[in-house]
Amino acid sequence: MTPDSDKPTPSPGLPAAPEAGGAVVAAPQAPTEPAGAADRAADRTADRPAGRPDIPAASSPAHTAPPHRLGMQPAMIAGWSVALVALTVSILLWQRVSGMQETLARQNAESGKQAAEARAVARQADDAVRDAAARLAALDARMADMAGYRSQLQELAQSASRARDENLAVDLEAALRLAQDQSQLTGSTAPLLAALRTADRRLGRSQDPRLGVAARAVARDLERVKTATVTDTAGLLGRIDQLLRQVDDLPVANDVGRASVASRQREAAAAEPANWWGRTWAAFRAEAESLLRVSRVERPEATMLTPDQAFFVRENLKLRLQGARLGFLARQYEAARSDLSAASTALGTWFDPASRRTQTAATLLQEAMAQSKSADLPRVEDSLVALGNAASGPGSSVGNGRSN
Description:
This protein is mainly alpha-helical. Helices cover about 70% and strands about 0% of the residues. The chain has a domain at about 165-230 and about 380-404.
């Protein structure tokens, strides 16, 4: 029902009712209905209760639809069309997304399968690499063993080929060292000369060129030992024993019981008087000069020496000379020279240098020291080094030969 349905509908063929305000509007003429239609309309009007206006039939073709219903029909059609299109698009998109998901799931499954296969292949490759590394390590160990065996075989072959010459060099080196020790112990060059002559003769018979350097070194040492001076150890020890016997008779520097050298010279120069009173006067003068003596003191510490200290000074000098003697016997020439030097210093410090006995002892000490300077025996180090190089191997012998 619309608002217009409350108004009374004019009957067909009647004039229109006036509007409010007194205006009268002419109603349009309704189209002529067929006879059957008019009878049906009259029947409906008779059946309608009184007081209700006539409502036109909706199915009557004589009446048209309201204007707002006519405007809603295109909008509804358009809305349903859009909804249909959206539904169609959604269905298509859903199908497409479903297809993409299936594709991605399939690709993911294939990728996982390929990754598993790749891991399996990598694991196999890793195992193969480990096996190869183990085999390579085993081959390296075998190669190292073979190289060691080869070097050992080469060394054995070389040692077998040069055994005779190396044994000769070793024997000669040992003989020379023994002869050198004997010469040092005995103080004679005879053992060393004999060993050098034997080595020169045996090296001359050898045909090995590696021993040529050793042969030349032995020849040089042989000539040097022949021309070396030998120390007379017996004479040197005799001089030291003579000094030991004279130590107790040496006068110290502050000895007052002896006559001065000047007075003894004057007594020797003066002629013995012929008369008795001249002899008496000479004796009285000598006694007076022994009571009073004037001399120049060179070393003040020597004048303060007591008799007990003089005893220990003599004993110290004896110990120095005994040490020098033992040093010469043991072939310790440096220690012997040091003891002789200390004895010479003590002799010049604590004993009277003007005494004839002191001068004789000093002369013997100087001779012993001069003789001990030439007491060192010659050594054959060049021959020992050359023979050692020849015995150690061919490389060192050749290198020394080139350097020489």
